[in-house]
Amino acid sequence: GPAERNAILRAFLDAGLGAGHKCLIGLQDPDAPSIIRRLGMQADVDRCLASQQLDVLGADDPQFSPEDFSIPEMLAFWDRTVAKANTEGYEVARLSAEAAWWGPQLPGGQALIAYESELNTLTARQLAAILCLYDLNDCTGSLVIELVKTHPRIMINGLVVKNPWYVSPEDF
Q1: Which of 35, 8, 7 lies closest to 130, judged by CA?
Q2: Closest by alpha carbon to 98, among 135, 61, 72?
Q3: What's the confidence (pLDDT) of residue 106?
């Protein structure tokens, strides 16, 4: 739910912004920047937004449409984002998006699973930390099982662990 999402985002962003990383966040709320401002972070959010160290996309900022769905194009979007961050002098890019933000841009659950699996290839090519946010109240049991398989690390009760059920993109 939102409370857990906010706590996870606060820690992810505070660590990244504090370390001088570029951060890009996608949230389903149309006024996503106001959510980030209310997280109670240590970082000066308005300064980070103004300097574009922190970019926040909301429901009104979709990057794709279901009709144009293409995993290579989606991966290219993230590749360009990380490359741009590197060009701007950031050593690491931290990327995060709610599934509820991506969901309307995809043609269905199977597309989300395929995309999530292939997204792991990005970290093999680029220096990036990726945080995928799912509200388990919005996911069905079978979808959750498949999604878990696409993530090399998962958070369980606030603890990040190596995922014993992870299946690499090549094997997925």
Answers
A1: 8
A2: 135
A3: 73
Strand 153-156, strand 159-162: pairing: antiparallel
Using left for φ > 0, alpha for ψ between -120 and 50, and beta otherwise, residue 153 falls in: beta
pLDDT digits (tens, 9 = 90+) for 11-59: 999 999 999 999 999 999 989 999 999 999 999 999 999 999 999 999 8
pLDDT higher than 90, residue 103: no
Q: Are 131 and 160 in contact (CB under 8 A)?
A: no
- Let me know: does 23 contact 94? Beta carbons within 8 Å: yes
Half-sphere exposure of 101 (CA within 13 A, CB side): 21
Residue with tokens 């429901």: 59
Q: Is the whole-model pTM more than 0.85?
A: yes
- Average pLDDT for the chain: 89
- Residues 63, 48: Cα–Cα separation, whole Å: 22
Amino acid at position 128, single letter? A
Distance between CA atoms of residues 13 and 21, nearest Å: 9
Distance CA 138, CA 76 (A): 27
